[in-house]
Write a structure and sequence with these properties.
Blueprint: E1 5-7, H1 12-18, E2 26-27, H2 42-56, E3 65-75, E4 78-80, H3 86-96, E5 100-111, E6 117-128, H4 133-143, E7 162-167, H5 178-187
Parallel strand pairs: 1-2, 1-3
Antiparallel strand pairs: 3-4, 3-5, 5-6, 6-7
Helix pairs in contact: 3-4
């Protein structure tokens, strides 16, 4: 019997992305300390937290493949947090306008039965257009990206904020790079494109 697949996240955006692989999965919110360690850069923090989120559910799901993911975004040396309000979203986009922002997404797959854990870091860069205050306010009014790091939804109207994008997988911006996730799942024996297992006694 195939191991159950667990997403260590309560993010509706990550759940929506994982559904694209058409694999049955469950999800649960991990309890982790998300404080930045002294001297820890954005990429190292994203990697560490991805690993810790997967391990945080190992006792609850001792015979599963557990996906942990974490994202840290930065612009001009400053971390871009989820704004949480209209005012902070407008301020954050105003700071980023005309600049480059880099999104670091840590990804980890843990086999909780064996303890084997595979981890990688994906980065994606966005180049914001020079934006007027009126444009920023209109965008925020229309899309209300208060729960998104960077204060935009690239899968929606947020795409209009950019001059160009650089990276391997645009899903990295949403927080779950599916190309590398497919690689890691295959390494652990779970191929989304594998033929379904035949049940005993089924006709061939």
């Amino acid at each position: 019997m195939a191991q159950p697949l667990i997403l260590a996240s309560s993010s509706p955006y990550r759940r929506a992305l994982l559904r694209q692989l058409q694999l049955p999965f469950q999800y649960a919110a991990p309890l982790t300390d998300e404080e930045t360690k002294p001297g820890e850069n954005a990429g190292a923090r994203a990697l560490r937290l991805a690993e810790e989120k997967a391990r945080a559910l190992a006792c609850t799901y001792p015979q599963a493949l557990i996906i942990g993911a974490d994202q840290v975004a930065e612009c001009s040396g400053h971390i871009l947090h989820k704004p949480g309000s209209r005012e902070r979203a407008i301020a954050q986009l105003g700071t980023c306008a005309g600049k480059r922002a880099t999104f670091h997404t840590g990804l980890s797959v843990l086999d909780s039965a064996s303890g084997r854990q595979s981890t990688c870091l994906e980065t994606y860069t966005v180049y914001f257009r020079p934006l007027s205050k009126a444009q920023i306010e209109r965008y925020v009014e229309l899309e209300k990206p208060y729960d998104c790091a960077g204060a935009f939804k690239v899968e929606g109207l947020g795409i209009t904020l950019f001059e160009k994008l650089e990276g391997t997988d645009i899903n990295t911006l949403v927080g779950l790079p599916l190309i590398r996730l497919t690689d890691l799942l295959c390494e652990h024996g779970m191929d989304p494109l594998a033929p379904p297992l035949k049940t005993p006694g089924a006709a061939s």
